[in-house]
Write a structure and sequence with these properties.
CATH topology: Rossmann fold
Number of strands: 6
Radius of gyration: 15 Å
Protein name: UPF0178 protein GTZ93_33025
Mean pLDDT: 91
Family: Belongs to the UPF0178 family.
Strand order of the largest sheet: 3-2-1-4-5-6
Distance between the termini: 11 Å
CATH class: Alpha Beta
InterPro entries: UPF0178 (IPR003791)
Number of domains: 1
CATH architecture: 3-Layer(aba) Sandwich
Low-confidence stretches: none
Pfam families: DUF188
Shape: globular
Helix content: 40-55%
Structural class: alpha/beta
Strand content: 5-15%
Largest sheet: 6 strands, mixed
Oligomer: single chain
Length: 152
């Protein structure tokens, strides 16, 4: 089991929570980004720097992640590739992408993109709040506990 992080837009508090969690549960984590990352040198932590370009980090994660892994991304198209593979996928606010919800989430994302492309200001997500941090930590703890138990 590995944890994959779409690190280009990962909030700092989420990164810190992940780093503490992998030291506790001793699960490898891979931060994937198209720029150098300043992470502490810790056991279980590695980085992959991919080339520049649209969705290069996403493609790396999509081809590398396997069933039973966990991925953290806010990229819904990436989540739509991972969920059918049996990867547990959550966003930085602690929301899980599941087989039951991913099609609807992708459809809504595409609809909002069409609105933006046609000039409609749809706003963006709010700032990353203490409640978001707490929700992420709780979901991560629950899912890691479940996955580690499944591993035996």
């Amino acid at each position: 089991m590995k944890i994959w992080v779409d690190a280009d837009a990962c909030p700092g508090p989420v990164r810190d929570i992940l780093l503490r969690a992998v030291q506790r549960v001793k699960v490898p984590i891979v931060f994937v980004a198209n720029k150098p990352l300043a992470l502490p040198r810790l056991a279980y932590v590695s980085t992959v720097q991919v080339g520049a370009g649209l969705d290069v980090a996403d493609r790396h994660i999509a081809t590398s992640a396997e069933a039973g892994d966990l991925a953290v991304t806010q990229d819904i198209p990436l989540a739509a590739l991972l969920v059918p593979k049996g990867v547990v996928v959550m966003d930085p606010r602690g929301e899980l992408f599941t087989p039951e919800t991913i099609d609807e989430r992708l459809s809504m994302r595409n609809f909002m993109q069409e609105l933006r492309d046609s000039g409609v200001n749809t706003g963006g997500p709010g700032g990353f709040s203490p409640q978001d941090r707490q929700q992420f930590a709780a979901t991560l703890d629950r899912e890691l506990t479940r996955l580690v138990k499944q591993q035996g």
